[in-house]
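Give me the fold.
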Amino acid sequence: MSMNLRPVLATALLLLAGPLLVAEFTFDPGSDAEIGPAPFRSDDAGEELPPGADPALIRADERWPRAARESGGIVGDAQVIAYYGHPLSTFMGVLGETAIADMTSDLKARAAEYDAINGEIGVAPAFHIIYGTVYEDASIGILRQAKLLEYIEFAAENEVIVFLDHQIGDGTVEGAIESMLPYLRFPHVHLAIDPEWATTRPGEEIGAITAEELNRAQDMIDEHLRSNGLAGPRMLVVHQFNYRMIENRERVRADYPMVQLIHHADGFGPPEHKRASWEFNVLAGNMPLKGFKLFYPKSWRDGGYDDPLMSPADVLQLEPVPVYIQYQ
C-alpha cells in the first residue's frame, strides 16, 4: 500500500483567550466505492471512581441537556466519547496511531472513566474518522473504501459508533455531505464537517461556512434518512474554535427531527484557553448540544496539544455538560 504524503500545516487563533494552534499532516489515501449494511449497539461501563473525582460536582445525569433527552437517539441517554484521526496516518490523531484493536481497547478504557463519574448517563465509544482530507492546494482526498469499511465493520462488531468527517477544502458543504450520505445506510454511522478547512488557502487562513450551508447540510441528512426509510436521528458534528468559522451562526437551526447537531469546541491549549473557547461556543444557545475536544500530548511534537490535559472530572464540570467528547 503506497501513501503519497502531502503535509499541510495550519495555524488557528482563538478569538478570545489567545492562541490555540492546530497542526495537521495529510496525505492522499485514494478512493473506491460500494458499501453495505452493518449492525449497531454501543455501551460501556466503568466501575471505579477516578482519584479526586467528586460525583456531587460532576453528575452529568442531573445536568444532562434537555435538548438531548427530548431529541432521543444516542445522546438522549449516553455521552459520546470519541477517538479522532485518519486510519492511515500516525500524525493526524490517536485513531491512527495504533492498530485498530489496541486503539479500541484504549478508547473503551477512556470511555469507562467517564461512565464511572457521569451518573446514570451511559457512554457511547466512537471512531471519529477523517473521511475527506484537505491538501495544500485545497483539493480533497477521500479515504479508500476498503479501509473505511474495515473500520465501520469492526466498530459494529465491537459496539462502537462511527463519525465520518469531511474537511471540505475548495469544495462545497453540500458536496461534502452528498459524498457521505450513502454511509448512513449503516445505522451506527454519523457525520461531521470541519469549517476550518473550508477555504482555497488551507494553512494560510481559517476557513468558514455559513449558517445557511449548515442548515442545508442538516436538511439533506434529514431528507435522505426519511426518503430511504433509515433510522434516525443521526448526529452531525460541526467544529468551531474561531468566530469566523460559522458565519451568522445565530441563524443556525437545530430543529431537524432526524438530525442532532453537535456544536463542537475545537482547538488546543491550556485549560483556561480551552474554557474560553468553550464559553464562546456556549453563547450560541440556538445550538444547544455541545461537544468538547482534547488533544493528547505528543512526545514527537513541540507543542500543539493540551498542556496540561484536562481530566474527565474537569470536562464533566463544564456547563452545559458536553454530550460529545473527542480526543485527538
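The first helix runs from residue 55 to 58.
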